Amino acid sequence: MNKLIKLLSIAILSVGLLGGCASQIYHDYIMSGQVVTVDDKQVVVCVSDTDGLKEHQVFNVYRTVFDATVISEGEDGYSREFVGKIRLGKTKDEHFAEATVLDGELARYDMVEFDRGF
Fold this sequence. Notes:
By secondary structure, this protein is α+β, with helices and mostly antiparallel strands. The chain has helices at 2-18, 24-29, and strands at 31-39, 42-47, 58-66, 78-91, 96-104, 111-114.
């Protein structure tokens, strides 16, 4: 009986943790958006909702990179690489906002996250 409870607990915890990446909480509070266009130091970002965003907020920008030389079993080869920071400008509509590059070389499809200071 004790073993069954442990197995069920592990299964429930695993499903909860694995589903975290697809949850609305993750998209609303952690992954804020994606770079849509880059023009020199100006970018447009797509965000889940611009209602809670304020002009001049600073965001970290990350790029997903793949290392094809990974040979260890169980490793997927994908990682996130910090590529720079942006400062939010005016919102265009409920999903898009303008921003200025503060640091780094950004590219289309880079992932934008709130700068939480840690």
